[in-house]
Specification:
The protein has 115 residues and is mainly alpha-helical. It is 45% helix and 10% strand. It has five helices and four strands; from the N terminus they run βαβααβαβα. It starts with a strand and ends with a helix.
Length: 115
């Protein structure tokens, strides 16, 4: 879907409008796009993780598959999920099942400390 730049900047003061080019930008919705169509494995991993997180389907993230640590961190950034590097296993790749279990353990531990 292409969206005009001026449409995305609706709150811009009217005196600034003459200085904004009306470019058309491709806009994607991570929640609804078909990740299977993505040829780049890293990007597909990020989109699939984000879709599971947005849907609240963390069980789907527990699949026993390996992804690059950077892909997992990028997905966490897009969903504003507080994942720290120290929460993840060492190495360039992580096992999704182990990573999610560690994340939930940390969240559970922090919840116990805050009560």
């Amino acid at each position: 879907m292409l969206e005009a730049l001026k449409e995305t900047l609706k709150s811009t003061p009217s005196e600034m409008e003459p200085y904004i080019n009306d470019w058309k930008l491709p806009v994607v919705d991570l929640k609804t796009m078909d990740a299977r169509k993505l040829m780049n494995r890293r990007l597909r991993d990020v989109v699939e993780i984000d879709q599971s997180m947005f849907a609240g389907s963390y069980d789907g993230l527990r699949e026993n598959r390996k992804i690059e640590t950077e892909s997992f961190m990028m997905a966490a950034t897009f969903t504003c999920t507080n994942i720290r590097r120290e929460d993840l296993p060492e190495g360039d790749e992580i096992n999704m099942c182990k990573a999610i279990d560690q994340l939930f353990q940390r969240m559970s531990d922090e919840g116990k400390l805050n009560t």
